Amino acid sequence: MRTVKEISNITGVSVRTLHYYDEIGLLTPTDKSEAGYRLYDDKALETLQQILFFREFDISLKEIKAVLNNPTLDKTQILQMQKKMLITKKERMARLIDSIDDILKGENKMNFEIFSKTEIEQLCQTTLDHMPELMRQSIIEKFGSIEQWRKHYIECCSKEDMQKGYQKMVEWYGDKDSALKAMNNPPNKEVGTAFGKRINEIEKRLNDLKKYPIDSFEIRKLIGEYGFVMKQFLQVKHEEGVMLSIASIYRDSRSTQWPMIDQKYGENTAEFFACAIENFYKNENISKK
Predict the structure, then answer these.
(1) How far is the C-alpha of 171 from the C-alpha of 88, rounded, in Å?
(2) How far apart are alpha carbons 54 and 174 in whole angstroms?
């Protein structure tokens, strides 16, 4: 049997993180000493090694727990997904390295392309297919024709800033193919309305807790629910990036969301929502260390 400190020294995982794993039922100690100290056997150490392996691929603690508690799950499929994620990152790194080589050669150019022209054209068609008729008519009035708008859309989406935005979406969805699939199959209006109501209800309940400490269980539980709803709605593998972007929207005074939230719930509510989200995911990331 090894103590929690000995396990920490062996693996490099902090004592605080091991305590947290115990609290959420991810890694329960094998036993406890008479003095109440956590004790771990070799099997527990092997389980911790599995957890650390999954964490290297940024798999959430909830997903890891589901895998470890359900041995019937096909771990080969999980590894294939992780491999696909790594290949996507590898390809992007290769493009960046090639661009730096070009700069070193005196060819000052950078390639930020995430989605190709063909893929952007498909996204454009998807947008057009799901566009309300009133918006379609407005586009024709502004651009003269749908084809002129299509040309403008493709040109804008090919620019560096948009491609960087696409890269963030790829990170949210785990790989490029999953991001494209989600973007080309947006939720229908009814689904969007239903999820919108859930978010409004969460915001209302969160506002009722403004006097609670930001790291209280009640607030963290609601933010966890918020993240789960967004993960289900957007069908992303990891919702952290999405939620932190939402926090930025709440905080950004240029956003239409910010004054609307404060007007609805009172001054500084948007800032409170942003802090609650950031605090939640900051604490979640402790377990990665």
Answers:
(1) 9
(2) 14
287 confidence band (pLDDT: 50, 70, 90): very low
Handedness of CA 38, 65, 58, 188 (dihedral sign): negative
What single DSSP character describes residue 106?
T
Give the pLDDT band of residue 82 (cuts 50, 70, 90). Answer: low
In sequence order, what are the residues at sequence separation of 6 or more whose Cβ sits closer than 8 angstroms to the Cβ of residue 87? Answer: 175
CA distance 84 to 79: 9
CA distance linking residue 175 with residue 84, whole number of Å = 7
Q: Sheet harboring 38-40: ordered strands across? A: 2-3, 38-40, 31-32
Interior/surface letters 143-166, b for 16+ CB within 10 angstroms, e for the rest? eeeeeebbeebeeebeeeebbeeb
The DSSP secondary structure of 197-214, one letter per residue, reads HHHHHHHHHHHTTTTS-T
Which percentage of the chain shows pLDDT scores above 70? Answer: 83
pLDDT tens profile 39-79? 999 989 988 888 887 777 667 788 788 877 776 656 676 56
The answer to whether residues 169 and 183 touch, using CB atoms and an 8 Å cutoff, is yes
Helix (H) or strand (E) holding 31: strand 31-32
Here the tokens at position 226 are 């918020």
Whole-angstrom CA distances from 231 to 32, 75, 179, 217 are 37, 22, 13, 21
Backbone angles phi, psi at 238, to 5 degrees: -135, 125
* Maximum mean pLDDT: which of 175-179, 188-192, 193-197: 193-197
Closest listed residue to residue 265, CA positions, set 206, 194, 192, 189 = 206
